[in-house]
Amino acid sequence: MSEWLRVFRRGIGIENPLTVLMIGLCATLAVSTQFQNALFMGFAVIFVLAMSNVLVSLFRRVIPSQVRIPIFIVVIASFVTIVDLVMKAFVPSIYSVLGIWIPLIVVNCMILGRAEAFAYHNKVGFAIADGLGMGIGFSTVIVLLAFVREILGTGKIVWFDSTLISLPAGFAPPSLFLLFPGAFLVFAFMIVGARWLNERLDARKEGPACRV
Amino acid sequence: MSGVSQLALLFIGAALINNILLTRFIGLCPFFGVSSNMETSIGMSLSVIFVMVMASTATWVVWEFILDPLGVGEFLYIPAFILIIASLVQFVEMYLRKASPVLYRAMGIYLPLITTNCAVLATATEAAKPGFFKMNIALGASLSLGEALVYTLGVSVGFGFALITFAALRERLELVPAPRLMKGTPIAFITAGLLSLSYLGMSGWFGL
Question: What pLDDT is recorded for position A168?
Answer without folding.
Answer: 76
